[in-house]
């Protein structure tokens, strides 16, 4: 038989990069508006004027579609700032996270809620957001050790990432707004003392027992 009688199931629609970008933007908008649980492929398809079959065939389902939409944003620009001292490096680092969070609070709330419901989404967020951020933090801490600011054997070093992640997300858990002054104070009064960093305003001081 001729090719015109070939079953439709064998044909795959082609979605252009521009059309996919439009769909991703729509998915992210709906994620902000209704959250992950209420977001549906049917709703997205109707708003995008695209068939549900096309979305399922191309992406597989809601989790995969949301993951693709989040990945379309690209990794966050979290640099391993080099100010010359660890205290200010950490303030620059946490300040960048705070800045990014402030740009899209609705998205961040929706994603933070969703990742605990879908392991695949959690893995995608970990790869796209968390791991690049932790890599930058490792660079900041390793540089401080190389400068001699913190001993390589400092017992507090392994806990820094947990302290930073905890305070960054603590505001959402407590339903409180955490501003940059609070974050800088957290570094000054919690993380810096734990690492034995001297506050230059205090003059010479003995390092705590490590």
Automatic annotation (TrEMBL):
Protein keywords: DNA-binding, Transcription, Transcription regulation
Superkingdom: Bacteria
DNA-binding region(s) in UniProt: 40-59
GO MF terms, alphabetically ordered: DNA-binding transcription factor activity; transcription cis-regulatory region binding
Occurrences of domain HTH tetR-type (ranges): 17-77
SUPFAM superfamilies registered for this protein in UniProt: Homeodomain-like, Tetracyclin repressor-like, C-terminal domain
InterPro entries: Homeodomain-like_sf, HTH-type_TetR-like_transc_reg, HTH_TetR, Tet_transcr_reg_TetR-rel_C_sf, TetR_C
Name under which the protein is recorded: TetR family transcriptional regulator
């Amino acid at each position: 038989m001729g090719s015109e009688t070939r079953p439709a199931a064998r044909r795959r629609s082609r979605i252009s990069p521009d059309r996919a970008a439009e769909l991703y933007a729509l998915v992210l908008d709906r994620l902000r508006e209704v959250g992950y649980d209420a977001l549906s492929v049917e709703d997205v398809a109707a708003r995008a004027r695209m068939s549900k079959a096309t979305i399922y065939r191309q992406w597989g389902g809601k989790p995969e579609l949301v993951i693709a939409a989040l990945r379309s944003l690209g990794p966050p620009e979290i640099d391993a700032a080099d100010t010359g001292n660890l205290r200010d490096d950490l303030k620059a680092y946490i300040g960048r996270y705070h800045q990014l969070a402030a740009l899209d609070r609705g998205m961040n709330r929706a994603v933070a809620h969703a990742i605990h419901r879908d392991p695949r989404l959690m893995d995608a967020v970990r790869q796209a957001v968390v791991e690049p951020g932790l890599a930058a933090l490792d660079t900041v801490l390793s540089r401080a050790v190389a400068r001699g600011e913190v001993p390589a054997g400092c017992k507090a070093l392994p806990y820094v990432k947990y302290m930073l992640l905890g305070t960054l997300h603590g505001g959402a858990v407590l339903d409180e707004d955490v501003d940059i002054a609070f974050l800088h104070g957290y570094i000054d009064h919690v993380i810096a003392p734990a690492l034995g960093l001297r506050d230059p305003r205090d003059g010479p001081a003995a390092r705590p027992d490590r």
